[in-house]
Specification:
Order of helices and strands: EEEHEEEHHHEHEHEEHHEEEEEEEEEEE
Largest sheet: 6 strands, mixed
Number of strands: 21
CATH superfamily of the largest domain: P-loop containing nucleotide triphosphate hydrolases
GO molecular function: ATP binding; ATP hydrolysis activity; transmembrane transporter activity
CATH architecture of the largest domain: 3-Layer(aba) Sandwich
Bound molecules: adenosine-5'-diphosphate, magnesium ion
Distance between the termini: 38 Å
Pfam families: ABC_tran, TOBE_2
CATH topology of the largest domain: Rossmann fold
InterPro entries: AAA+_ATPase, ABC_SmlMolc_Importer, ABC_transporter-like_ATP-bd, ABC_transporter-like_CS, Mo/tungstate-bd_C_term_dom, P-loop_NTPase, Transp-assoc_OB_typ2
Radius of gyration: 24 Å
Protein name: ABC transporter ATP-binding protein
Function: Involved in beta-(1-->2)glucan export. Transmembrane domains (TMD) form a pore in the inner membrane and the ATP-binding domain (NBD) is responsible for energy generation.
């Protein structure tokens, strides 16, 4: 028998005036890095705070290593939470912040100092012991918060939007550090974020959340390449979406009819009889067809174009009235179509995915 998950949620619900987390079951295997990915307001922080013991679920159980700890207070749970606002003590030095939890536990001063020094070295803050929190940059504060949690050697670390609000360079640096810490310390980590890149690079497993419900659980590759439905697809960047007039199932390929054209699609990975199918593509995988080339779809009328730095976004409309946005290279060698002109587009060798259209709010 495999060992029980470090964290398990068993049909957890949280209701305020309405449900904000609905019947969630999930497992975080020991030593793994799991990320809950969802838009703002989808219930991520609520889930984390229920696991940490700061909020009581309305229904359901929370288990650590197989033991039901739903009724226990935060300090009795084998986990440590780093909140989005970090919660550092502003009047204390870096070293005092990191040593605080050890002091509360009654660890002697010499051991406290030794552990604090070691942990500050791990998060690359040696020499910062005597600094005050307001004298640190955002990224340094984030690392102090990590050190303060990790020094207690928690079996489980809960991270609420660990990289949100940092500039791009710091994000990358801290992402690398969290990943190294995870491997080095072997801790189980559950992070929540609205940022798909963060989830992609750090996690063994991603749980996609929407309005308090799980839409998909999978490896980053599964979620990003084979999203379960149009909501997940749009969230991970497949946001060129077309509604077909008709869908015909096949053995290898399925076929969909859009604006009078027959389109070969990947067969759906999940079927959901409650929803119609939509075709989804990554906007950067579409390009404008050469006049002599066989196109995959068209004609489309160009509505507008917008320069985006690396790409140019083309907003277009099909003869059936559907809008389609996609990206073409901003390379000077790639012609930008004029507004009002008629174009055809190509996406081969990629095929569109055919997914249940779960875009309307449930
Ligand atoms: P996320 O972290 O994904 O942005 P939250 O878990 O913070 O989402 O919130 C989920 C939903 O619960 C939101 O709609 C939020 O407004 C609502 N919510 C959070 N806390 C409370 C509360 N104390 N009372 C009522 N509603 C709340
Ligand atoms: Mg939140």
């Amino acid at each position: 028998m495999s060992s029980p998950a470090a964290i398990a949620l068993d049909r957890v619900t949280k209701v305020y005036d309405k449900p904000v987390v609905s019947d969630i079951s999930l497992e975080v295997p020991e030593g793994s890095f799991v990320t809950v990915l969802g838009p703002s307001g989808s219930g991520k922080s609520t889930i984390l705070q229920m696991i940490g013991g700061f909020l009581q679920p309305t229904a359901g159980r929370i288990l650590f290593a197989g033991t039901d700890m739903t009724a226990l207070p935060p300090n009795k749970r084998p986990c440590n939470t780093i909140f989005q606002d970090l919660g550092l003590f502003p009047h204390m030095t870096v070293a005092e912040n990191v040593a605080y939890g050890l002091k509360v536990r009654g660890v002697d001063p010499a051991t406290r100092r030794k552990c604090t020094t070691e942990m500050l070295a791990i998060v690359a803050l040696e020499g910062y012991e005597r600094r005050r929190i307001h004298q640190l940059s955002g990224g340094q504060r984030q690392r102090v918060a990590l050190a303060r949690a990790l020094v207690l050697d928690p079996a489980v670390l809960l991270l609420d939007e660990p990289l949100t609000g940092l500039d791009e360079r710091l994000r990358q640096q801290l992402r690398g550090e969290i990943s190294r810490l995870h491997r080095r310390l072997g801790a189980t980590i559950l992070a929540v974020t609205h940022n798909q890149d963060e989830a992609l690079s750090l996690s063994d497993r991603i749980i996609v959340l929407r309005a308090g419900r799980i839409e998909q659980i999978g490896t980053p590759r599964e979620v990003f390449e084979r999203p379960a439905n149009a909501f997940v697809a749009r969230f991970v960047g497949f946001d060129a979406i077309l509604k077909p007039e008709r869908v015909d199932s096949g053995i290898a390929d399925w076929h969909a009819r859009v604006a009078g054209r027959d389109i070969r699609c990947e067969p759906p990975v999940s079927r959901d009889p409650a929803h119609d199918y939509v075709l989804v593509l990554r906007p950067e995988r579409i390009r404008i067809a050469d006049p002599k080339e066989r196109s995959d779809l068209g004609p489309l009328t160009v509505i507008s174009t917008a320069y985006k730095g690396r790409d140019v976004e083309v907003e277009s409309r099909l003869v059936d009235g559907q809008a389609l946005k996609f990206l073409i290279s901003a390379d000077p060698g790639v012609a930008v179509p004029a507004s009002g002109s008629s174009i055809e587009i190509v996406w081969e060798p990629m095929k569109p995915l055919l997914l249940p259209d779960a875009l309307v709010e449930p």
